[in-house]
Amino acid sequence: MMHSLLVEGFGVQNWTYVLVGITFTIYIGIAIWARAGSTKEFYVAGGGVSPLANGMATAADWMSAASFISMAGIISFDGYDGAVYLMGWTGGYVLLALLLAPYLRKFGKFTVPDFIGDRYYSNTARLVGVICALIVSFTYVAGQMRGVGLVFSRFLEVDINTGVIIGMIIVLFYAVLGGMKGITYTQVAQYCVLIFAFMVPAIFISIQMTGNPIPQLGFGSQLADGSGTYLLDKLDGLSTDLGFNEYTEGSKSTIDIFAITLALMVGTAGLPHVIVRFFTVKKVKDARKSAGLALLLIVILYTAAPAVSVFARTNMIETVSNQPYANMPEWFKKWETTGLIVFNDKNNDGLINYVADEAKNELVVDKDIMVLANPEIAQLPDWVIALVAAGALAAALSTAAGLLLVISASVSHDLIKKMINPNISEKGELIAARLAAVVAVCVAGYFGINPPGFVAATVALAFGLAAASFFPAIILGIFYKKMNKEGAIAGMVVGILSMLFYMTKFKFGWFGGGTKADWWFGISPEGFGTVAMIINFIVSVVIMKFTPEPPLDVQEIVENIRIPSGAGEATH
Amino acid sequence: MTEKDNAKAYWKENIRYVLILLAIWFLVSFAAGILFKDELNTIRIGGFKLGFWFAQQGSMYVFVVLIFVYVRLMNKLDKKYGYDA
């Protein structure tokens, strides 16, 4: 390995300290510069964020540890089936731009429960909104803190709990001090870090394997070895030789792929921490434009990810399959010590037998390590490997901060200001918001250190919940003038409960449990958000037919939000 | 035209744009990438089977274009109905 001889003196770990140190200093610097002085700055960054800055912040907010670390890894094991994440987590932005963002911006409020409470003229509806926002955000944020801990433990070789605590302190610093204003501008910096960190190794490896510097084209190109074979054909061949499905075919049923994709799209459009970003721009037309910019910036990573999956999968199979265990490179041994690669020489021949047949397979590779290990597998320079660690931290921290803000605003604005103590002063509300953020960080950190066994399972639940609750309530609130509070509340409650029922039944074995064979219509719990959403729509409309119309002034508000002009400042 | 009629006409045109764009959104993802993937996979572009390409690349490019087309259409529509203030 030439490169490691050249920079032997410095090494991956020192590079990681340097790069993580520099990026963290930048985040803290921005936090001090962008302190929030009013609740308006704390909740919506003062409402004057430019569409481009908001687009970058939304992209960083949206792309979490799951997008950065896990997604390409999952796709490299699932092949075609991985498309549910690619289409599901981008297609939601089309719904957001066309159906939600402009109208919510015109409505001019601080939070999603705020919209629900005012549009449905009911504090019960607001409370249901607050509960949904809290459940969705807490399940999501716990996973982020865990991701922070993982990166620290692998690359800086500190204890995973120390890693979580360092992450907590950083987020605490800029979320509590700067609120939405601090978060927005650190997210802009974090977007730059994470996209650079993802693309550099992708470009390197694309050139290495196919000679094409654009990964999106590289994985559809011929191999650089002059054989004239297409990379994807080679991977299809390698996969079938080892007994796996063809990479480009996948194994899930069509109806399940359909349901999961739709649930993720609709869930994306209904996630409060994404929606709230569109409250920060000045005008309705800025909300549309910044949704477009956000998706463009996200798609740069999302179209490169499936290329990375193919490169990593091919490289991994070629490095390990039927090779002597004794010859494995350093990265293999390092990941073995973390327990994320497990080799068990069942037939004692000293060779690594990596096949689909579970009885004969000797190697288990955790999906989460593919992106992190990819630069090492491809023998890229140390600084590139360190860059990936800094990028993963940027992705996890930016999403965690956005979620914490939703939690704190739900408590200080929707619960305290709107329901418990409407006479609270501006200053008092700001203090409450900061305290709520501190408590939220501590709870998130606790779950990061002591992850409940079901964290991984509940990430899908966050999307399902958003799809089953917020999405129909907001859509009906904008596009169906006659939708009343009875319909919306009943829809949200029944939607969420059916989602919770299905998830707990098939994920945790409650209500008698069940296996794949018992799935309704062959739809997995991940895809059930689609069904729960449809249930919500039906219940809402049926209940509405039997209950009184909404008051005339509410119907007028709905007509008013459909007109883009005169979007005032966000108000209480 | 009264203010109310103006708003109604604006909303109607907006809904038409949204429906057309969502039809394309559905076609490139759910139709090309999922429902008709196997049929499209018989066509190849370079190393990509077409259905696979739509599912893992093409649909996402079209999503981005759709939003920017909507932005342009709506900016024009806002002007036409005097809502661009």
UniProtKB/TrEMBL annotation, chain A:
GO cellular component terms attached to this protein's record: plasma membrane
Swiss-Prot/TrEMBL keywords: Cell membrane, Membrane, Transmembrane, Transmembrane helix, Transport
PROSITE patterns recorded: NA_SOLUT_SYMP_2 (PS00457), NA_SOLUT_SYMP_3 (PS50283)
Listed CDD domains: SLC5sbd_u4
Annotated InterPro entries: Na/Glc_symporter_sf (IPR038377), Na/solute_symporter (IPR001734), Na/solute_symporter_CS (IPR018212), Na/solute_symporter_VC_2705 (IPR019899), Sodium:Solute_Symporter (IPR050277)
Primary residence: membrane
Keyword Transport attributed: yes
Localization per record: Membrane
Bilayer disposition of the protein: Multi-pass membrane protein
Keyword Oxidoreductase: no
Transmembrane segments: 15-34, 83-104, 125-143, 155-176, 188-207, 257-279, 291-312, 383-409, 430-449, 455-480, 487-504, 519-543
Gene Ontology biological process terms, A to Z: carboxylic acid transport
GO terms of molecular function: transmembrane transporter activity
Family: Belongs to the sodium:solute symporter (SSF) (TC 2.A.21) family.
Name of the protein described by the UniProt record: Cation acetate symporter
Originating organism: Algibacter amylolyticus
The organism's taxonomic lineage, starting at the top: Bacteria, Pseudomonadati, Bacteroidota, Flavobacteriia, Flavobacteriales
From TrEMBL, chain B:
Keyword terms of this UniProt record: Membrane, Transmembrane, Transmembrane helix
InterPro entries named in the record: Na_symporter_ssu
Highest taxon listed in the record's lineage: Bacteria
Domain Sodium symporter small subunit: residue ranges: 7-83
Transmembrane segments annotated in the record for this chain: 17-36, 51-71
Record protein name field: DUF4212 domain-containing protein
Organism: Algibacter amylolyticus
